[in-house]
Design a protein that fits this description.
Conserved hypothetical protein from pyrococcus furiosus pfu- 392566-001, ParB domain; Arc Repressor Mutant, subunit A; two-stranded antiparallel ribbon; 7 strands; 52% helix; ParB_N; ParB/RepB/Spo0J family partition protein; ParB/Sulfiredoxin_sf
């Protein structure tokens, strides 16, 4: 049977030796907690920053915050390449671009570069490399594009731009209209047209809604006029060649005639027309407008009977020669005198001869 080994307590020398070995194999860095030790090590490795450097860092941080805030508000001007701008993302409120004014703008930008920045907005669905749409500055961009196409110079390849924080298509239309209302007054027809077109493009539910939001700052009477011109554009916009030159009075008379149910007569009056200017175009419409304004005569009204006026001779003959077809009269002038021009399907030699006979009779010739 094996004998049990007798255990002996270690001596003081043994304990001292063991403690020294433990300390040698496990170095200690003080009595601080581990996380405190990590922080101390990191601080020891970081460079020492003096007060001036700390002040500069704080200023740089504040400047960066201000820049980000200004950019978010569309207050920072930047250079945007023309090929990143979608010129056709939005239907413009201008019905046409005056070529003379555009030519003058091209000459100005060519000589002095682009003085005023254009206003853009980020497209919700960028495509074909296009990132931005146009709020204002459409003509300036056209001029820049023309110059770049003609010269190829890099200074015309970008546009000074402000990126506006616009979140929706209706906002973009409102911003565009407000900009043009401030810088250069839109015509009555252009106001009505953009209300209809923006509605057709889905920006607004109805034309009424478009007028109310696009011209929110306008007076009640002005919005009423815009609605009238919008009605003219809806019914006759495809036939009128000089609609943007309609005066306020002419547009309101047209709208009133349309509301009285004379749309077809107006369209027929324009069907075969080829007016050379706004005056001739209005003369095509005027007979229908005047007939509608005169209205049907009420034979039941009492009062003193009016003396019967002698019917104009030949009126029935002239109408029969027209055979119900439209005839447009216009005036011209040359070195020999004033000319009358007969146009339309109803114009014929017989009609002209009959009209000459009537004029001679009225003049006593």
């Amino acid at each position: 049977m094996a004998r049990r080994r007798k255990l002996q307590a270690p001596s003081a020398e043994d304990l001292t030796r063991l403690e020294e070995e433990f300390r040698r194999e496990t170095p200690m860095k003080g009595a601080m907690a581990p996380i405190a030790q990590v922080a101390a090590d990191a601080a020891g490795q970081s460079p020492v920053v003096d007060a001036a450097a700390r002040e500069k860092l704080a200023k740089d941080s504040a400047d960066a915050d201000r820049l980000r805030d200004a950019e978010s508000k569309g207050l920072v001007m930047t250079e945007v390449p023309l090929d990143q701008i979608d010129m056709n993302d939005m239907i413009r409120d201008r019905a046409s671009v005056d070529q003379v004014e555009l030519s003058e703008l091209i000459d100005s930008i060519s000589a002095n570069s682009l003085r005023l920045p254009v206003e853009l907005y980020r497209l919700k669905q960028p495509g074909d490399g296009k990132t931005y749409g146009v709020v204002s500055g459409y003509r300036r961009l056209l001029a820049l594009k023309h110059l770049h196409d003609q010269t190829g110079e890099s200074k015309f390849a970008t546009a000074k731009s402000l990126i506006k924080p616009i979140e929706s298509v209706p906002e973009a239309f409102v911003a565009m209209v407000e900009e043009n209302e401030i810088r250069s007054q839109l015509s009555h027809f252009e106001r009505g047209r953009i209300a209809v077109v923006s509605t057709q493009n889905g920006a607004f539910e109805t034309v009424e809604d478009a007028v109310r939001k696009l011209f929110a700052s306008a007076s009640k009477s002005k919005r009423s006029k815009v609605r009238s011109f919008a009605h003219v554009f809806e019914e006759l916009g495809d036939l009128l060649g000089f609609a943007d030159q309609l005066t306020e009075k002419q547009g309101l008379r047209l709208a009133s005639t349309l509301r009285m149910g004379h749309t077809q007569e107006l369209r027929e009056a324009m069907a075969s027309r080829q007016p050379a200017n706004s005056e001739e175009e209005w003369l095509c419409l005027l007979p229908v407008v005047e007939s509608a304004e005169e209205g049907p005569k009420d034979q039941s009204r009492g009062g003193r009977p009016k003396s019967a006026s002698r019917p104009k001779p030949g009126t029935g003959r002239l109408k029969s020669l027209c055979a119900g077809e439209p005839v447009v009269l216009s005036r011209d002038e040359d070195e020999q005198g004033i000319l009358l021009r007969f146009q339309g399907k109803g114009a014929s030699k017989e009609l002209v001869d009959a009209a000459i006979d009537e004029l001679r009779a009225l003049l006593g010739n």
